[in-house]
User: Which sequence fits this backbone?
């Protein structure tokens, strides 16, 4: 299948957590790592997150800290839970940069209409076994739309789905010197990785890996 080159990127604590608890907002890494994340976005055609991340973090997913184009922003949101959330930052500058939301038949017509009227491209795709959006389908659609490089920024469920389906070419992990002691892991699976590079970013460390075999 023709699909975009996929990089998964997330920031974690020393004890491997990407958020203090399910649904809580996450700002784990420092300013240099944040700039690095924006540069990474500018080198991708699109950046993808799950609706859990939109609801918890209300991210903009732009490149505002660096010079470079904003990627198209893509959200996986079966029921269009993004509505009605007032002040959703991802829905700003929709017409300029482009926002695509993948949903399933479970989304109501009125929600689809409301998003379309704001310039959002809503694409209805079939759900797969567990009701989640079928990743193979959306990757095919994104590729056809010219997305050759896709950055996946989380959260945990999305990262787990992509890795389980062997849909990651590169994984970039920023590790910050903080321990939560509890919280949400980046992925709920057992995966071996091959280290490609290590870079210090202020107080944080950025490591690039090639994912290996997933043990279920
Ligand atoms: N530290 C970091 O770098 C970082 C980055 C991003 C997020 N986070 C944190 O991660 C947390 C959110 O993660 P999360 O796991 O709750 O939510 P998530 O991964 O952002 O979104 C998961 C939701 O996406 C939808 N979805 C649709 N198709 C899917 C598929 N094929 N696979 C997986 N999900 C699919 C499902 O909702 P529907 O069934 O409603 O469609 C699912 O519940 C927040 O606390 C956020 O702060 C941290």
Assistant:
């Amino acid at each position: 299948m023709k699909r975009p080159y996929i990089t998964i990127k997330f920031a974690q604590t020393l004890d491997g957590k990407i958020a203090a608890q399910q649904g809580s907002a996450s700002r784990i890494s420092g300013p240099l790592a944040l700039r690095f994340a924006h540069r990474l976005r500018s080198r991708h055609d699109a950046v993808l997150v799950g609706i859990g991340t939109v609801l918890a973090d209300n991210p903009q997913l732009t490149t505002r800290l660096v010079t470079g184009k904003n990627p198209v922003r893509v959200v996986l949101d079966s029921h269009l839970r993004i509505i009605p959330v007032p002040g959703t930052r991802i829905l700003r500058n929709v017409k300029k940069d482009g926002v695509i939301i993948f949903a399933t038949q479970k989304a109501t017509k009125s929600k689809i209409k409301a998003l379309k009227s704001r310039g959002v491209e809503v694409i209805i795709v079939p759900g797969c076994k567990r009701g989640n959006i079928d990743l193979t389908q959306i990757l095919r659609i994104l590729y056809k739309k010219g997305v050759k490089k896709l950055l996946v920024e989380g959260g945990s469920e999305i990262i787990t789905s992509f890795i389980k389906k062997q849909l990651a070419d590169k994984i970039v992990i920023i590790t910050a010197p903080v321990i939560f002691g509890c919280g949400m892991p980046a992925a709920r699976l057992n995966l071996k990785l091959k280290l490609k590079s290590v870079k210090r970013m202020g107080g944080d460390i950025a490591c690039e890996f090639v994912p290996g075999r997933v043990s279920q």
Summary: The two ends are 23 Å apart (CA to CA).
